[in-house]
Amino acid sequence: MGTLGSRMQASSQDLEEAVETACASGKHGCECRKRKRTAHCDCDSEPDEEDALLDTPRRKKLKSTSKYIYQTLFLNGENSDIRICALGQEWNLHKVYLCQSGYFSSMFSGSWKESNMMVIPLEIPDQNIDTEALQVVFGSLYRDDVLIKPSRVVSILAAACMLQLDGLIQQCGETMKENVSVKTVCGYYSSASIYGLDSVMKKCQEWLLNNLMTHQNVDLMKELGEQGVCCICRADVMEPLIQSSDLFVMQVEMDVYTALKKWMFLQLNPSWDGPIKQLLADADTWLCKRRTELGEEEPFLKTEDGAPFTPVFRHVRLQYIINDLASARILERDNILPPDWLTSVYKSQWFAMLRTEHDNDNGPQDANKEEFESSSMRCGRKLTKDGDYCWRWTGFNFGFDLLVTYTNRFIVFKRNTLSQPCGGAVSLQPRRHLAYRLRLASFDNSGKLVCSRSTGYQLLTLEKDQEYVVMNLDSRLLSFPLYVCCNFQYTSPHMDRRPDAPEPESSARSVS
Fold first, then answer.
1. Residue 53 lies in a domain
2. What are all long-range contacts of 183-188, with beta carbons under 8 Å and residues at least 24 apart?
3. BTB domain: which residues (predicted)?
4. Domain for residue 55, yes or no?
5. Based on the domain organization, do 405 and 310 belong to the same domain?
6. pTM over 0.90
7. CA atoms within 13 A on the CB side of 142
8. pLDDT tens-digit profile of 287-322?
9. Distance, C-alpha 104 to centroid of its chain
10. DSSP 337
11. 3-state SS assignment for residue 435
């Protein structure tokens, strides 16, 4: 027995040592808890981990006070002390919350009869305000955040302005600026002008300057007029757009005139429905029919139908249309513009040509930004994808044959005299000066700027066949299609004027 007991005791010790060895080597998992722990067992850290988990806070979202107030007081109307009636609907509200509104604060604090009334009928003089807008505006008094749908922002803005809620008015303005598009720009501009949101008007105007020519749209052209959906006055929108040197022109000034012709046709024929590619042909046919069937000999802008469009056509920069033979012939054929407009421009351009040829007018040398803004040549080009491009804008440019190149993310100007053929006369003067501004832009599907760059107003002197790098682009900022818009001034303004002569009108002003 003693020998057997000794053997059993030895076997037990061996088994325990084997288990401990297995635990130390990672075997048997957590079964080692049932055995004698050693200093090498990884399971020793588990109690510490459990303690750490117990000390870790758990985040559970509770119903906020704001949501409770909105649900209980506004939606349920509990403990209401005043009832507002408007547009056939009632709201059980609270004076203490309504006093956040300047409209109600004045009503309750003054000697108005409504200050002691329990039920207040609210007159709604603004047709833009509906019950849904009032629901949002009243609800905004009971919560610290409001979600505004871009399609509903005009109605909410109207209600916010009536109730004098400055914070909500500002939020409506930000919503409008973030959602300007071809479908909203006219409505937003019109509403911003009514309710005094100058920053929204400016944003809409910037959008129109960028997109009116680059992304022509039939519905937009219909809206931009007296007979449009929003009844926007032509003088309020179209005139400053056509006058601006910031208008993104594609391709040359003749395209501005063509766009206005299409726009005028749509204003006088609002039922026209067709693709944008067919619009110009139908506008030309319509003008021709008026001339032949009605026997109209006087310019269209002198007729009763055409007179309202005169202020807008005045700002077309005709001096850059008559410098191209085909374009000049179209002006004569259309007979839209009064002859004296064209006569003054032809005279001005004739003297400019004589100065260049005989009086050594080498171009602008002094900074005259005001003159540049009012009368510079506007032109543009669309680069559909990355690659190598080289082009010139057509027309007689007083012997200054300017080549524009885009390659390897560089935009380069080159004064061409001998290296490449040119359809017109080329100046061989040693140096020529020009004023210019070049802008690049790309847009998303809504017409919003994705990226843009500008050189600003610059003066440049080029020798024969000299090249000049105008802009070096960062590839990370490039997005195609890329729109290139340029403003140029090739001749010095008013060099033929005597010191005692009266101030002449520029081509843009001569038609006004």
1. no
2. 184/150, 185/220, 186/220, 186/223, 186/224, 186/228, 186/229, 186/230, 186/232, 187/154, 187/229, 187/230, 188/153, 188/154
3. 80-150
4. no
5. no
6. no
7. 23
8. 999 988 877 789 999 999 999 999 999 999 999 999
9. 36
10. S
11. strand
